[in-house]
């Protein structure tokens, strides 16, 4: 009888130890696989969430309360909150979050805020989330994220992606100006008219009317002086859509380089993705295709040329040759890198942030640079090879 009791106690102790080890292993697995694609049982409370909020926006004081209330309804520990400052605009805050052990860092604001927050995450195993509350929200449109209204309606739909989304590895562009420090290109960078339009946009009008404010600014500066550019495309894509002049240009087959000289234009843009509000700038641009899309725009005949340009983008997608080519022209190229030399200093922007006056741009793509949370419903429409489980992102 005594021996049976001893065996029973030993068995109970061993079972307790095994259960403790099992629970510990499940906790560790939950830490690394909590948001994984296709995972139904999510250990969401095992993760550390940091929301970095753009402090300059009118909704900044209310959004934290909404997020806290949402996490309470899910019975998950309250997340951490940091606010951007005038100097860092999100970068320092993201570095602080990483030092404090953040697993998921969520940028709350527009594309500029997202761009600044993700900088310290490049090349790490950490995950970026986005609550798109900017004027253009270009990244959100290109990966299918929910865009809440400025009064924070439908915010819970965006937060659902933070807790239940899949992770997608996305590309990033890097832009060197006059051989100086590199700038991140999350969505689109531009030189010339594109940047000047952003500079001419009134902040109050933008707060009230969003992306439409840029059209009002464009009317102010449509007579912007043209520039002449030389372009060197490294690893270009040559297909039926490639302009004839580039297929007949100075091509170095051994290094796969195309050089185009003395192109007259109003603006030149480098895009990591192509969808804008109401229109698509680069139809072939995908945020995970390991390519940059270079878009060159030229117009003549004053305002009439710009009107035909808009018509071209909306109706003909800017590709087909037509009788109005001399009035307005959109030319697109794809490559992994583009070196652009301009005949004068022009204003340059990246993701809506003005970078200054420069005459040389060197843009390159970095494939699968950041882990981004996207809706699970969007996985099938994206390159599934770049949709990964959280534990794979940690490697």
Which descriptors would you attach to this protein?
395 residues; alpha+beta; Rossmann fold; Tumour Suppressor Smad4; 16-stranded mixed β-sheet; 12 helices; 18 strands; disordered N terminus; disordered C terminus
Number of domains: 2
Helix content: 25-40%
Task: Tell me the span between the first and last alpha carbons.
Answer: 53 Å
Radius of gyration in whole Å, from Cα? 25 Å
Total helical segments: 12
CATH-assigned fold name of the largest domain: Tumour Suppressor Smad4
Determine and state the CATH class of the largest domain.
Answer: Mainly Beta
β-strand percent reads 25-35%
Order of SSEs, N→C? Answer: HEHEHEHEHHEEEHHHEHEEEEEEHEEEEH
Secondary-structure content class: alpha+beta
What's the mean pLDDT score? 80
Low-confidence stretches: 1-15, 21-42, 384-395
Largest sheet: 16 strands, mixed
The 3D shape can be described as: globular
The CATH architecture category of the largest domain equals Sandwich
Number of E-type strands: 18
Fold topology:
Blueprint: H1 2-33, E1 49-53, H2 60-73, E2 80-83, H3 91-99, E3 104-109, H4 111-118, E4 127-132, H5 138-143, H6 155-164, E5 166-177, E6 182-185, E7 188-192, H7 193-200, H8 203-209, H9 212-221, E8 227-234, H10 244-247, E9 250-252, E10 257-265, E11 267-271, E12 275-276, E13 279-280, E14 292-299, H11 303-316, E15 328-335, E16 337-350, E17 353-374, E18 387-388, H12 390-393
Parallel strand pairs: 1-2, 1-3, 3-4, 4-17
Antiparallel strand pairs: 5-6, 5-17, 5-18, 7-11, 7-16, 8-10, 8-16, 9-10, 11-14, 12-13, 14-15, 16-17
Helix pairs in contact: 7-9
